[in-house]
Amino acid sequence: MKSRYSVWKLIKEGLGGHTGWGPAWRNAAPKASYDVLIIGGGGHGLATAYYLAKNHGIHNVAVLEKGWIGGGNTGRNTTVIRSNYYYPASARLYDFSVSLYERLHKELNYNVMFSQRGIITLAHSRHDVEAATRWVGAMNCNGVATKMMSVPDIARRVPFLDVSATARFPVLGGFIQEKAGTARHDAVAWGYARAADTLGIDIIQNCEVTGFKRAADGRVTGVETSRGVIGCKKVGMAVAGSSTVLADLAGFRLPVTSYALQAFVSEPVKPVIDTVVLSLATGSYISQSDKGGLVIGGALDHYPSYAQRGNMPVARNVLGAIAEQYPALARVRFLRQWAGIVDVVPDSSPIIGTTPVPGLFMNCGWGTGGFKAIPAGGTLLAHHIATGAPHALAEPFSLERFTTGALIDEAAASGIAH
Ligand SMILES: Cc1cc2nc3c(=O)[nH]c(=O)nc-3n(C[C@H](O)[C@H](O)[C@H](O)COP(=O)(O)OP(=O)(O)OC[C@H]3O[C@@H](n4cnc5c(N)ncnc54)[C@H](O)[C@@H]3O)c2cc1C
Fold first, then answer.
1. What is the DSSP string of 82-93?
2. N or C: which end of the chain has fewer CB within 10 A?
3. Residue of 203, 225, 371, 380 with the most ligand 1 atoms within 8 Å of its CB, for mutation
């Protein structure tokens, strides 16, 4: 049994030379078989394993991760958490996730540094303002509190933003979701891993799934991995940008395209921005980490790719847009840039539930915005695996919607896609 993290433990360890901290999770070796195997040690996979044990009492579970946990998009994102979605189904899903984030540090006994500093979405044209007004109306009907902001409101909250009439991207207004914010991405992965391990789940890193074992009736009975065959009764897969690769191995196709999405972090500077600001015209957005780095993101790279690098034209566009909007920050130096491979679905909404292979469940299609959904995505996938039926919140997000046409086109409705 692990000791709880607390201020008392910190003081005790501080006085005692820090010799009493145990590993946060075991480095488990694979057993011959499990009740459930989860492929993918990102936030969604780890959360699914945790909720299988916690909500459904299923403890004989392993998470199989080809690299290190959190090494995929979960450790590469810009950490924005919000629920300002247009359609009721999305608003319910993401608002549920935000509510789980609000108590995640207590639930996991791990400081995920969730900071509800708000997100401001900027409107740069008359049309943006109209779209934003419609969007705010829809969100408030959906129970997600948001409000329009005037230009002086925005200028007060974001002093470095150029709101002058001659600005390259003039600001005509915007809106804010106050309870949105950011969290520490690694901590979300590590917190779920530690809590799952405490409940008896095996976290197996450096274990790549390379194939599926099937019974004569097609049901999945195990997986082939770089560490041998592992048997199971059910499999849940949460592999984001690798979803199509795994689906190929299982013998079906997904309406998912993988793209590189880049992030950029500057040298640390004094506090200059205490919220998240997103520009509808440029797609670029900025916040500041607790260490002082400016954290910046923007649009997808222009072509599909499985390379975790990202290309120069997009980097130039995103950073150029930020420099135009925040001229005072134009000479800040950038320390780091990276990319993750995001799983983009035509209607910019996730896929949660069953696959054409009996016993194989999945959670994917979060695209550029699945960090905010980790607690909800894990809860819903665990529910479906454990009970065999979709959670009410997951029903609209089944794979079948691509044959029935019941799509939830968030990007088209709200004008942005991250
Ligand atoms: C630059 C960037 C910025 C982003 N910004 C935001 C943001 O601000 N807010 C937000 O909500 N979302 C954001 N996202 C999206 C978000 O990061 C993802 O939607 C989310 O992290 C997906 O989590 P996941 O657990 O599904 O996938 P991942 O974290 O990618 O985990 C999948 C795991 O599966 C493993 N895997 C793959 N294939 C195999 C295999 N064959 N065998 C075993 N393991 C395998 C991978 O190694 C990986 O660790 C951003 C993404 C990027 C790249």
1. ----SSHHHHHH
2. N
3. 371
Q: How far is the CA of 274 from the centre of ligand 1 (A)?
A: 26
pLDDT per position in the chain (418 positions), as tens? 678 999 999 999 999 999 999 999 999 999 999 999 999 999 999 999 999 999 999 999 999 999 999 999 999 999 999 999 999 999 999 999 999 999 999 999 999 999 999 999 999 999 999 999 999 999 999 999 999 999 999 999 999 999 999 999 999 999 999 999 999 999 999 999 999 999 999 999 999 999 999 999 999 999 999 999 999 999 999 999 999 999 999 999 999 999 999 999 999 999 999 999 999 999 999 999 999 999 999 999 999 999 888 999 999 999 999 999 999 999 999 999 999 999 999 999 999 999 999 999 999 999 999 999 999 999 999 999 999 999 999 999 999 999 999 999 887 776 554 4
Ligand 1 pocket mutation pick from 239, 264, 344 by most atoms within 8 angstroms of CB: 239
Q: How many CB atoms lie within 10 A of CB 156?
A: 10
Give whole-number Cα distances, 165 to 195, 258, 318, in Å.
52, 39, 22
Cα radius of gyration rounded to whole Å, the chain: 22
State how far the Cα of 310 lies from the Cα of 337, in Å rounded to an integer: 9
> How many whole angstroms separate alpha carbon 328 and alpha carbon 317?
18
Q: How far is the CA of 239 from the centre of ligand 1 (A)?
A: 7
